[in-house]
Design a protein that fits this description.
Layout: H1 25-30, H2 35-51, H3 58-83, H4 91-108, H5 113-138, H6 142-165, H7 179-186, E1 189-192, E2 195-198, H8 199-217, H9 219-229, H10 231-236, H11 241-267, H12 278-288, H13 300-319, H14 327-351
């Protein structure tokens, strides 16, 4: 005969399910990928507010936002691509390619500017599909594939521009039909509260909101995290890995098209050598915003904060009247500090689980 201990009054004898435990606000905050970048952005803002008197002016804020938006528009899809575990080293020159196609097609065909804009969209999306299909078919690293695309586009941008236009820049299309309406969409300026704001800022905010919704509220967002966390495991549970990767590269291409049209309609002409090196800035903005190089972790909001840090630093140095040659040094230092801070935040978040 065995004796059993009487149950303790008021105490459940069944273990609680950890999935039903409430998560404290602090734990949720520490688990956000963009936390480190927000702390860094606050530090950069306070730093330049102290050392540069003109930094806090309303007009300066509009300039900082514009500088951030030109990077942020591309940092958003690059961040999603990195969350999916891939890179795109052709993103910078793809922006220039998009602008060149719009300009040269419209000029050479003497067509309405909008025809060139739409042709550019199709060509740019096709390049994104090319990157995605080549990646999924060959199984080569995205670094190698997009490095090849980067080199090919760099050569095509320069070679075709010189062949068609006779120089390294395109001809002006400012007097062509449809230019004014296209400029209004891609390169206009708004005045809100006495502050002049470029329309790219609105494009940037809209893309960040859309990407955040996709990541957190849609099935495709779940696929992105799953593919970045482990493609084989994702495929085993039915995630369409191939479709997800191609879709991510098309997202990069679409945003490159938006940035390219802004480049064209802001200056009327396009220099064929522009864009080289910008792909690294997009990646830096995403990493500063909390994206992991290994994939499976990050956020669109973090990429926006990373781009905002870039805008504050690039313009803050000017407002402080420092030598702009120091910009790359500060950018590299911020990258290292942000990466270390993000790693520390992740460890703290994992320790509180």
């Amino acid at each position: 005969m065995t004796a059993t201990a009487p149950p303790v009054p008021g105490k459940d004898d069944t273990p609680g399910d950890e999935r039903l435990l409430r998560t404290s606000p602090l734990r949720r905050l520490l688990g956000r990928p963009e936390l480190g970048s927000v702390v860094g952005a606050a530090a950069v803002f306070l730093f330049f507010a102290v050392v540069a008197d003109s930094f806090l002016r309303a007009s300066s804020f509009g300039t900082v936002l514009y500088a951030a938006s030109t990077i942020g528009i591309m940092a958003v899809p690059v961040a999603l691509l990195m969350i999916g575990g891939e890179f795109d080293l052709s993103a910078g020159v793809l922006v220039t390619s998009s602008a060149l196609v719009s300009s040269m097609f419209s000029y050479q065909m003497t067509a309405n500017v909008w025809v060139g804009v739409l042709v550019s969209l199709l060509v740019t999306l096709a390049i994104g599909v090319f990157n995605g299909v080549l990646l999924t078919r060959t199984k080569l690293p995205s670094f190698i594939i997009t490095l090849g695309t980067f080199l090919m586009l760099t050569g095509l941008n320069l070679g075709l521009t010189k062949l068609i236009s006779g120089t390294v820049s395109t001809k002006t299309i400012a007097d062509m039909e449809g230019f004014a309406s296209a400029r209004a969409l891609f390169a206009s300026q708004l005045t809100i509260g006495g502050v002049d704001l470029k329309v790219t800022i609105l494009w940037w905010f809209a893309l960040v909101a859309l990407a955040t919704w996709v990541l957190l509220r849609t099935r495709f967002g779940n696929w992105i995290f799953a593919v970045g966390g482990g493609a084989d495991a994702a495929r085993a549970v039915g995630v369409p890995v191939r479709t997800t990767r191609i879709g991510l590269y098309m997202g990069v291409a679409f945003c490159a098209w938006v940035s390219g049209q802004h480049l064209l309609f802001s200056f009327d002409v396009v220099q064929s050598g522009e864009g080289v090196g910008n792909e690294l800035i997009y990646i830096i903005a995403a990493v500063i915003g909390g994206c992991l190089i290994t994939g499976g972790y990050g956020s669109a909001i973090g990429s926006a904060v990373g781009a905002f840090i870039f805008g504050m630093t690039s313009k803050g140095i000017v407002y402080a009247e420092w030598n702009p040659d120091w910009f790359k040094f500060f950018l590299g230092a911020m990258l290292l500090l942000a990466t270390l801070l993000n790693a520390w935040v992740r460890k703290r978040a994992e320790a509180t689980k």
